[in-house]
Amino acid sequence: MPVGIFRVCLVVITAIINHPLLFPKENGTIPENTEEIIKKMKEREEILRLEQLRLEQEIAGQEARQKALEKAAKVVEESKEEKVPWDMWTAISLVIFLLIELWRQDFQEGNWQDTGGEEDDMAVLGKAFKGVVLPDKATLASFYEKRILGTTGDMARMREMVEGFADDLLEALRSVCNRDADMEVEDCMGVGSMYENWRVRKPFVCDLIVPFAPPEPYCFRSQIWCSGDSFPPDEQGYGTIKVCRADGDAAGCICDKTKLGEDMLCLLHSQANITRPSSQMEDLLCFKNTQYLDADQVMKWFQIAVTKAWNRISHKYEFDLCFSLLDSPGALKIKFKSGKSIAFNLTPVVQYENSDVYFISHFPRSGLAADLPSSTHWFLTFAVYERRFIQLVSKMLPANACHVSCLQILSFLHGKQCSLTGPSGLTNYHLKTVLLHLLQTRPCQDWASEKLEARLQDMLKFLEKCLHEKKLHHFFIGNGKIPAELGFPIIFQRAEPLNLFRPFVLHRDVYRKTVDTFHEMLRNTSALINEYTVHIPHAHTNGIHKESL
C-alpha cells in the first residue's frame, strides 16, 4: 500500500513540474501557438487522469486481497481452536453409543453370560424356554440308575473283547507286510466315549487309533495351520504331512534296493513304476505328483492290509469280519453266527512330532462335519489328551462326582431326540467339549453327586448360549490354562481359539435344524426321562430331598 501512494505522488509532482504555465520560457512571453499547446496539455492531463484511476484501482485490489488473507487466517485460527473440542465430543458420543449398545445386548440376553449363577434360580433355562423345568433330583437319580448304570458292565466286556482281537489283527498285519518297504504299524490306543466311560446309547462302538510311520530311511514331516504360515479359515484345525527321506533327499526309494515278492507292493510307489527311475515314480500313498500324504491312498492301503491280515488269522475265530462303511477305512464289524454283531473303528493316524496329538485320516460322518479342503489335509485329534484331562480332573473331584453322569444324561437326551426328529448338527463331541469347559471353570466341590441337577442345568445353559452365539471354542486349541501335568504342546495353547460352531455360520439350514432339535429336546426332557424312570412315591421323594439338605 505505501508503494502505491508513493507512485501517485510521483505522478502528481511530475505533472506540476512539467506544466508550461508554471514554468514559462526565459523570454517570459506566451508562445504564438497557444491553442495547440493547450490541446496537448489537455491530452496530457487526460492521460494522467487515466493513469491515476488505474493506480487507484490497483491499490483498492491490493487492499481487498490483504483483507481476504487476514480473514482467511482468522478463520483457520478459529477452526484450530474449535477442532480439539469437536473431536473430544465426537469421541465421547461414540463411546456412549457403544456402551448403550452393549448394555442393550446384555439386557436382552439376561444372565446368559454367567455360567455359574445360583443353583436355585437355574430351573428355568432362558427367556426362550420360560416354564421348561428339569425333573427333580430324585427322578434324575432313578433315571440314571435304571437307564445308564446298567450299561457300564456291557461296555467293559466289549472293550476287553475288541482290544484283544485288534491286537491280534495288527500283529497279523505286521506279519504280512515287508518290514523293509512297508509302513510300520504301532500298537492301537482306545479313545472316545467308550474309554471315557460315558457312552450310553447302543450300539456300542469302540474307537481305536493306530499310529503308523514310513520305513527307513523315510520320515513324515508335518505342517499345521498354526505353525506360522497363513492358512485359510476353512483349513484351520488341519495340517499336511510330507513324505521325505530322513537325510533330506526325497529322491530314491528303498524298493529300488530291495527285491519284493510278486504279490507285494511298495507303499510309497505304484507297482507300474517299480522298474522306473526314482525321479519318475508316482507315490502310492501321496497325492499325485506331490510328496504330501494322501488320506484316500492311506484308506486304500489300510483296507487292503487289514483284509490280508484277517485272511491269515480268520481260521482261529468263529465269526466273520467285514468293513461296515466303505468311506471309512477302519470301520469294522464282527458278525457272529447267532446274528449278533460288534462294531468298532480301527483308524490309521500319524503322530505329530513327539506328542500325543495325531493327524487322523477320517472321521465318522455327522450333520456338521465339513468336507476336507483336499485329501492331503489331515484333521488333528486331541482324543488322548482329552481322556487324560478327564482322568486328571476326576482325581480331584469328590467321590462319586456327577460330571460323567451329566454328560451321559445329556448325550442320552440328545440321541433320543435325534431318533425322533432326525439328526442335527450337534454331536457328542460338542457335548463333551461343553463339559470340559465347565470342569475347568467350576470349583471341584460343585461336582458332588447331590448337585447333579444343578450341573446338568449348567451344561444346558452353556450349550444354549453357545448355540445362540454360534461359537463353541475347542477346549485345547487356544487354551492357555491346560494343566502342565498333561505335557500338552505349547504351540496349540498359543494358537487362536478354534470355533467348532463355525459351520453353523456358513450353513444356516443346518443351524436352524440344530436349534429346533435342541429346543424340542428341552421341551421333551421331562417326558423322555420319565419314560425310563420307575415311579417314585411322593413320601420317598420328600425323604430324598431332606437327606440332600
Automatic annotation (TrEMBL):
Coiled-coil stretches noted in the UniProt entry, renumbered to this chain: 38-72
SMART domains reported for this sequence: Mab-21
Mab-21-like HhH/H2TH-like domain segment(s): 404-478
The keyword Hydrolase belongs to this UniProt entry's keyword annotation: no
Keywords: Cell membrane, Coiled coil, Glycoprotein, Membrane, Nucleus, Signal, Transmembrane, Transmembrane helix
A Gene Ontology term for the protein's cellular component: plasma membrane
Claim: Secreted is one of the keywords in the record: no
Single GO MF descriptor: protein kinase inhibitor activity
Compartment list: Cell membrane; Nucleus outer membrane
Signal peptide: none
Membrane topology, as annotated: Single-pass type I membrane protein
Protein family (similarity comment): Belongs to the ITPRIP family.
PANTHER family linked to this entry: CELL FATE DETERMINING PROTEIN MAB21-RELATED (PTHR10656), INOSITOL 1,4,5-TRISPHOSPHATE RECEPTOR-INTERACTING PROTEIN (PTHR10656:SF8)
Role description: Enhances Ca(2+)-mediated inhibition of inositol 1,4,5-triphosphate receptor (ITPR) Ca(2+) release.
Name this protein carries in UniProt: Inositol 1,4,5-trisphosphate receptor-interacting protein
Organism: Crypturellus undulatus
Gene responsible for this protein: Itprip
